[in-house]
Amino acid sequence: MKVIGTVGLPGSGKGEAAAVAREEGIPVVTMGDVIREECRERGLDPAEHHGEIATALREENGPAAIAERSLPLIEAELETADVVLVDGLRSGVELDCFEMAFGDEFVLASIEAPFEVRAERLLDRARDDSDLDREALRAREERELGFGMGEAMDRADVRIENTDTLDRFRERVLTLLREGPEALRERNEVTE
């Protein structure tokens, strides 16, 4: 059993890492889906209220609320899978939650790219309004860093720079999923 979490600022490549996992038949638990589901339960459009509800859940139920709601989803996937990818940690508190639940079987990968590279990717993706406006993106990053994302990124077991080609990034993710962080380190595919 192995649970691999990803952390990274918007546009860094977390969604692409999740796509690679799905293509490999590895289940993916997306923490943002927990927030989107809560938006729908509250009768709100997830595209417009995602950040607001993420903040509300943490205020109402504590800083680990989203991670705690993700645990049963992860555990259910582990009943039939050897590896599960958890997409989108946002804080050291969430990291603590997963480390307590899974111990040494939990690995955190920080996916990183410079602001301008991420901004261009988000412009191409245009999933929500903050993807179209650099100032909105900076505000979104501030909110996510306010959740403690920087701490989680600093504590990651491995850092994957996503500044090369898409194929190269996908290869690194495959190595992580199939062989673990040590294989990336041995091949000098990560930054420390």
From TrEMBL:
Pfam families: AAA_17 (PF13207). InterPro entries: P-loop_NTPase (IPR027417). PANTHER family: DEPHOSPHO-COA KINASE, UPF0200 PROTEIN MJ1399. It comes from Halopelagius fulvigenes. This is AAA family ATPase.
